Queue: 2 jobs
Job 1
Amino acid sequence: MTTAVGTGLLTRFALRRDRLRIPVWALSLSLLFLYAVTALNAVYPTAADRQVRADLVSSPAAVMMTGPGYGTDDYTLGAMVANEFTLWVVLAAAVMNIVLVVRHTRAEEESGRAELLRAGVVGRRAPGLAALLDAAVANLAVGLACFVLILAGASTVDGSGITVADTAALCLGIALTGMVFAAVASVTSQISEHARTASGAALAVLGVAYLLQAAGDVHVEHGSWVSWLSPVAWTQQTRPYVDLRWWPLALAVALFAALMLLAVRLTARRDLGAGLLPARAGRAQARPGLRGPFALAWRQQWTSVVAWGAGVAVLALASGTFADETGDLEAMVEDNDVAAQVFGGGDLSDAFAAVMVLFMVLGIGGWAVSSVLRARAEEASGRLEPVLAASVSRGRWLGAQLAVTAVGTVVLLVVSGLALGLGEKIGGIDDAVVGRLVLAHLAYVPAIAVLAGVAVALQGALGRFAGLAWALLAYAFVVGLFGALLDLPGWALDLSPYENVPTVADADPDATPLAVLAVVALVLVTAGFAGFRRRDLAA
Amino acid sequence: MSTAPAIEMTGVRKRFGTVLALDGLDLTVAHGEVAGFLGPNGAGKSTAVRVLLGLLRADAGTARLLGGDPWKDAVALHRRLAYVPGDVTLWPSLSGGEAIDLLTRLRGPVDPARRTELLERFELDPTKRSRTYSKGNRQKVALVAALASDVELLILDEPTSGLDPLMEAVFTQCVREATDRGTSVLLSSHILAEVEKLCDTVTIIRAGVAVQSGTLAGLRHLTRSSVRATTSGDPSGLATVPGVHDLTTAPVPAADGAPAATEATFTVDDDRIGDVVQVLGGLGLRHLVTAPPSLEELFLREYGDPAGTGAGTRADDAR
């Protein structure tokens, strides 16, 4: 096994580089559980309260956002936590693993740093193995932190149904699913020369896995065979806090082993820095259109817009087709005052659409933030320098970057709106108005502009910390998905730019918040421009 | 066009945190002149270049570029200059040819015939993706983009650090052609031979301040050869020979049948080497080694405090 020489040293090095990232991920995810346990206990103190909630989460939109719905006939606190939060922690853990593994494998090769390491006494497989071990430590940290904090939160609650064994299964499931996606990222890292493509492909796999679970769970309670195709589903299929079974976790172990072997074989077959797909020759001369900073930025980002557009279209189309299942819910709402209150007493398919739209625009906000952060990458890599040295003003360059972000965002919003509307029509909602859904998406433009504005202001004025925009997006995600469930106070909701936007379910939408958001975004962007014109360029 | 200096920096300071990168730098490049900008690593060459390009803002002092302010008039001035960085990073998704076209178009109109000619002379394949280029080839991309435009000023920051000797010769030829058209050139480098080949004037920078500047002929005294000679006679009289500096002598004991002798080490101005060899001949010369000094040796001798303390003390002394 000389091909693995140096794995230990590289693993310690990777952990050294991740000494902040891993604790932040572990703490964020486990604190979400802790908060869930304590807040749900406060908001739904009695079994009757929880039963109302259990009826609500059987709607298709809710199933898409939760899971197979185990324990809804006796909705204990444990069942509630497992049913409503597991999916999101699993998805977040998967993202964490993809980010970590790509960062330590393909990104290192692309930057040329891996060459320096591999020239030392380091085997061919060592960097890949070290990345997986680094991910394993991260998953262990996430699992342990969740295990401790769930039990700590539940220790003050009587009759929660939260036992040590069930909690162990839940947290092990999260960690093992994390390992599966670490292995997925190890495989996608072999295919392309670019780190961005590697993480994009792994995220696409995650998206498909999510859709499979959602489709299976929506159509059959507790999931059809389609759900079982998705690694994302296996943690909840252990039925923690309801009727525990361990064997679904064996599926995760088996898939991880298979993917890891595949990644190791692929590594052995290729050159350092090369992908499995051959690099194509480029054009000898640029197209006439490639003549300004906007054209350059668009050239760098259009593939990302297309890839995201495809992903958004599939997700929105599939979600739209689930809308007709709301029919079963109509009867329930008529009999149930509490349920009616939650859905605002309005049209149920509108309520469903509002949730779906929010879900889509949160994702599209992620694209917008990553697009703005391209400006940071251009500056940090030194590629901005020759552009500014070639008679382009700073304002024009930053403006071009943001224009691409704006165009891409609007394109994605329109695609999502059209696909959701089309999906609803296919799903049998005859009175679905596609134009209204597109408008409902576009209403989020000012909110996304605030998100992007935070990144622009930080990057422009300080030249760093722009990544904090991700924290605001994560906050908006938590508030958007759990705000109502956790009965968060109004100011906490308002802190998320997304919560201020009127939805399709609003009977009497008010445009004032949009104007406020637009002004906030404008101030942030202006501050970013002013700072960027004034400061030194980062090397 | 005007005959004002292409570049004029007076007393320019730039501090990064606790590090004083430029400590009152003076630098002048006359119109139509090729100016060498010499200094060891970390001396502040690239910082000075980036101040001139308006990428960094000077803390104090004045900088003029082609008669304008490099910070305020950056965009207008950049139409009239081209820049080659020492460490070229390109857009991974673009081919070399596309990167060249983009960079030249950002500046203004370009002569396609000259682009083709330069690609041939530098033997650069423009269809390769930028990320597959070696350091030298990335540098060629930047050089072709800079040389293909008709500009008044070329700012070249260690432009040949990745080029092989053949390509370095092509580069030298291209710069000469540019100066024949009246282009001014600032050539930052730490390779003395390259500067000697191309430059009319030289400014030497160390720890953020210009320590020597003038015409190359005027700075000839910097390019002394170091000599190690073993003689049977007493060489201490060499100290009085014009052009000889830093003479030290050491006795060489008799060994292996060779009689005792004296070893002298010293440096000598290049134009005096003939006189010195004559004197050595009269002293019973047995062994002679001469070597042209490297730039680093020059620095060690001329400005001989140990590297590292210079910047630190200067930063502390700075107002």
Job 2
Amino acid sequence: MLVFVIRRVLISIPVLIASTMLTFVIVKLSGDPLTYLKTRQSTVSKAEKQAFINQEAHRLWLDRSWPTQYWHWISNILLHWNWGPPVTGHDNVASDVFTAFGITARLVLVSIAIALILAVITGVISAVKQYSLTDYTTTLLGFIFLSMPTFWFAILLKEFGLKINQWTGSHFFGTIGDRSIPITDHSFGGSLKDIIGHMILPTIVLGLVGYAAWSRFTRASMLEVLNSDYVRLARSKGLSPRTVMIRHALRTALIPLTTVTALDVAALLGGAIVTENVFQWRGMGTLFLTALRAVDFNVMLGWLLVTATIVIAFNLIADILYGVLDPRIRHA
Amino acid sequence: MTIDLEVDDTQREADPDALLVVDNLTVSFPTDDGVVQAVRGVSYTVRSGEAMGIVGESGSGKSVSSMAVMGLLPRNARISGSVRFRGQELIGLDEDEYAKLRGNRIAMIFQDPLTSLNPVYTIGFQIAEAVHAHHEVSKQAALERAVELLDIVGIPYPEQRINNYPHELSGGMRQRVVIAIAMANNPDVIIADEPTTALDVTVQAQVLEALETAREETGAALILITHDLGVIAGHAERIAVMYAGKLVETGTTEEVFYRPRMPYTLGLLGSLPRLDKQEHERLTPIKGAPPSLLNLPPGCPFTPRCPIAEDICDRDEPALLAAEGTGHAAACHFRSRVADIDAAEMFGTDAADDAPEVLA
Amino acid sequence: MLETHETLKEGTQPGGPGVDKPTLTEREFTVKERKQWQMALRRFLRHRAAVVSLVVFVLLVLFAFVLPYFWHYKYTEFVSLCTQSNGLAGPCSPSLKHPFGTDSTHDMLAVTMRGTGQSLKVAFLIAAVGTGAGALWGVVSGFFGGFVDSTLMRLADLVLTIPSLALAAALAHKGGGSLVLIGLILAGVAAPYVARVVRGVVLSLREREFIEAARALGASNTRIMFRHLLPNTIPVLLVNATLLIAQGILAETALSYVGFGIQSPDTSLGVLISTNQGAVENQPWLFYFPGVFIILIALSVNFIGDGLRDALDPRQTRERK
């Protein structure tokens, strides 16, 4: 088992390295960071302007070849934990990215957890009661969730939250940011209420992205296992229906869900971009969009590096978990 | 039509040794194209300790009828008739009640050992689980029983093997594990559904041997379902031949093998290679394919493939009627005539020159 | 030897024993195929939601591409505004004259028809290019195996480590936001998903007898890939293509929302709801109508895809209830 884990970890490293290269190319293709200078109307002479542009390009290493730039970027992170300067201003790219990441991680993780739990419950019920009213209803709902533009639903939900706030005369549902500004109640209970109030709506939006797909998957996987020979043998042994369902059907049916969930983490991070934008959270999504508009390439590189690491890490965890849950993989 | 000596159900009921009584069992499945009549009124009785074989081509309903006995058919199956175990009616029993019987009193062995075992649990766990299902014993005791069972079915180093996962064992080994599971609670009946079909020929004999050991060990009655008459010959005392969802011939192995009364049985026997026949003997295939069980036409379902069919066969489906002897019955209008015909003669081969002096 | 080899491969030899057989098998195949398609059609027709969705989808296509010729407002045409409660001129709410109301310049029904049409075009483009590229990717990868396979599949894995919205936005940033460019970018982002699925199918087909047979007859790699493997992935591709239409519409919408999608003067449903999101409170029709059309397209296509899966994937046979 230890060998299995070590091997999987080692396989992830080249994937991560390749991913940083791909990331670098994409950021390079996304635009010229100095466009803002080149298009700016200025009173200075053309030569002076060009000199300043050249100076900036030199400062940001833009006048070097791509491989040199790449190496400069990645080695600075690895050796000095220096994520490079922003195109303008003096912000620290690393701390910007990690602050934003903390905010987004909370949203994404809670959404995944809730979506997974609900998906498994409804997926299993749908499979066990195939072609029942419950099955048809959850299937229809799943399809509707799958067919709704995330931000359209987010805006709808935001309106809904505001209406409820109006009716009840409270400010429970926060629709702007991840905390109230200014924070009025500093007690633990007050903070918790504030955090939860701000989290509910975005979590529902983001959770639905995963829920729709995962409940469909659970249903299909469960149906397949319920019709399998080994479930039939388990029944013919005289195990109680409950034991057959949980120990033999559910346990085996859920194994492939680990992989699917891990693969969808990237999609959820994408969904977070939209969700955060609607609810004006200052997380990864907002950071990325601002950076992309300004072609603030070090921020984008940092963003993509963190995201890719997260996705690869989730896939690694899923791989290992798969190995723990399915002996066939472990011994392979 | 003569209704001479129809096999009497009430008489069967009274049989004190009767363990499992299947009476007029009918199973149908609604499908896209209509209702498939998989089993059409099957009746048989299994007595304690005896071994009965059910023979038929795939699709003849032999597996479906045994699944119906185990209560393992999918929910969309429509079942009617009666299955009584020690006098208790099983059809319509709820899942919890059924669970108490399964594995405990009636056990089953399935066709494909490669998919029968759950891939994520050790075989020791899966055997112990069967013990636990019906007996309040410690984990240790159940595992010890698992080791003992593996030893009985002929798996070497059972103490180590219990920690193996199914994928680490060969097909033959896995089928032995399934047999061990079936015998775990000393059941009264073991139903083996094509237990050797998915296995290599060389392994088949070993698995059958393990099955035989299991029977001796538990004293259980055996229902051996197969399309392979060779398997039946050595392991069953009585035979029921199934065709198109019905029993078409029943009797002792002797009777059915040597004095078949139904052209289909005769055809099956003719297509079996035999060492006791003369060198130039050709196999006699039955031409055609079994009928679709969807919208069966009236009449005997074997008519299109039957060389001695007459007009009546197209009109009336013959009932399973006694031919001679105690239990020998056949569903053929001409059952008395069939007795005198040889397979080669009936189905025709080039080498049909030797006399029908089939050994008696 | 080599000659026979060639003729067998192409099947052009006018007579002789080599030709009889292929034509015979071919006839058998077409007969069987027609039967399979008939069965698939019957299974599809029994999926009620899929049939209803197909009708809805056809109506949506007509709405987008035919109705504009009959509607008395054009999407380019300025309309007179209505007097608001505060006495100022502003967007009209839905009425007989403007069933979908108006925004501050145009008839919303005409604009929605235009948006639906443009969105459908993008979606079809994504589905066609994405499926095509993904199929090629998957077939080559699965067929050659080994080094080619691991390189191509690792590349797919890499693309999948980046949130596709971020990837598409980054690539679209410099391009100016034309419909074709956005479609191609989103197709490129979707291709690795298709490639994975197709590769899986090809891997299972590769060892099958008919591929062995083709190889034994001396068929070239290209021929095996495009004449034998690719046609057998069509059911999977068809299902995937429908799902890509739905995902494409949604992806284009999301991209428009974050500001990197199709740019005006061109439009799409995504552009419409993004520009009108501020109106949700005061002129809700501007926000709801385009949104409902997106849902209608995506939902109907998703159901059609589900029906196709039922119809084309014989493993998932549905028993009748």
